[in-house]
């Protein structure tokens, strides 16, 4: 089977190839020192990756209904819902640092993954909320 992921040169190109609008990311909430390391897409889905040494942050947005859009099947000490205005965010990680967050704003399916499988090395809830708010825009 052919790999469905395509590396895009820019977010605009990924939006054109995937049919997904991925707007509103406020980079102030991307952890300090993390640099964009790649934009990937397939029909109906965009993924943006950030890296800093051995840390990784993965943002995904889809217009298709995808179960576990994060692709993170690791077990974490805590799982809970974080309220965010007009949608809730399903979080997994520790009580104060979130490794995986999934949410469904306005018909989209989104995830934020920070160091998947490494409890205690996620993002604080405020950063998750701020990134999620930007990802919910069309």
Provide an overview of this structure.
There is one protein chain. Helix content is 14%, strand content 38%. An eight-stranded antiparallel β-sheet has the order 1-2-3-4-8-7-6-5, with helices on one face. Strand 2 (35-42) and strand 3 form a beta hairpin. With 138 residues, the chain is mainly beta. The N and C termini lie far apart (32 Å). It has one domain (6-135). The longest helix is centred in the last third of the chain and has 11 residues, at 125-135.
Q: Reading side by side through the largest sheet, how are the strands ordered? A: 1-2-3-4-8-7-6-5
Report the oligomer.
single chain
Determine the mean pLDDT.
Answer: 92
Strand content: 35-45%
SSE layout and pairing:
Layout: E1 6-8, H1 11-18, E2 35-42, E3 45-52, E4 55-62, E5 78-84, E6 87-93, E7 98-103, E8 109-114, H2 125-135
């Amino acid at each position: 089977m052919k790999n469905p992921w395509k590396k895009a040169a820019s977010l605009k190109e990924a939006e054109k190839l995937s049919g997904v609008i991925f707007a509103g990311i406020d980079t102030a909430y991307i952890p300090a020192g993390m640099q964009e390391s790649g934009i990937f897409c397939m029909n109906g889905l965009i993924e943006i990756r950030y890296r800093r040494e051995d840390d990784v942050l993965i943002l995904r947005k889809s217009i298709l209904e995808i179960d576990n859009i994060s692709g993170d099947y690791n077990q974490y000490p805590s799982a809970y819902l974080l309220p965010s205005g007009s949608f809730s965010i399903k979080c997994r990680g520790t009580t104060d640092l979130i490794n995986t967050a999934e949410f469904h704003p306005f018909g989209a399916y989104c995830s934020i993954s920070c160091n998947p499988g490494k409890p205690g090395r996620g993002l604080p809830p405020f950063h998750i909320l701020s990134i999620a708010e930007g990802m919910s825009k069309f």
